[in-house]
Amino acid sequence: DTAVSQTPKYLVTQMGNDKSIKCEQNLGHDTMYWYKQDSKKFLKIMFSYNNKELIINETVPNRFSPKSPDKAHLNLHINSLELGDSAVYFCASSLLTHTGELFFGEGSRLTVL
Amino acid sequence: GQQLNQSPQSMFIQEGEDVSMNCTSSSIFNTWLWYKQDPGEGPVLLIALYKAGELTSNGRLTAQFGITRKDSFLNISASIPSDVGIYFCAGQEQGAQKLVFGQGTRLTINP
Fold it and tell me: Which of A42, A45, A99 is nearest residue B31 as measured by Cβ atoms?
């Protein structure tokens, strides 16, 4: 059973399009995250939700909008995609927010042409 | 903002060699963690450290939480081919909800 699953794994799209990435965790964790990994493999947090409430909102363009319908799901919608949005987006979850012990999904590789 | 400096950025070693990498921060951290990322996968937690001076092992891996709380190191003994990947340090300040990652150390092993 996959603990943190995200779909799609690969996404190729044109500039200006809108796309969504979905994430689900079956670990019973209260906190979920979206991280962006760029071509140099640098991991940067974008958003975090604790029990459906937004608790971390980094300096991210407002074209990116997270949504957490329940504590097991965290989706990421991106409007008006730009070339610089190309990256691997990782969903993660944790039982507690202060331990740093994250469980990551396999990633969604977004390529914007 | 917080920054973590991880070194080296890459390592090329022979199978069987020991490996050492470290991470330093500009601020005091309450938690240090080490993750490993295999190609096409998400990072996986290897070791978590919660106390200054703490030395923790996980099989052939050993990590330490620096006394100053501004650094940590990870050692891998007797490397094997499956150790190949990118190793990330990560840290969290007391009370902070955000985990900060280092730039990663890419480990390549020649058989």
Answer: A99
B1 part of contact set with chain A, CB < 8 Å: no
| Positions of chain B with pLDDT under 50 | none
CB contact under 8 A, B88 and A43: yes
In the numeric block, the tokens 């990663």 are attached to B104
**Cα separation, A21 vs A6, whole angstroms:** 7
Residue range A38-51: average pLDDT?
A: 92
B96 touches chain A (CB under 8 A): yes
Q: What is the DSSP string of A9-54?
A: SEEEE-TT--EEEEEEE-S--SEEEEEEE-TT--EEEEEEEETTEE
Chain centre distance of CA B105:
8
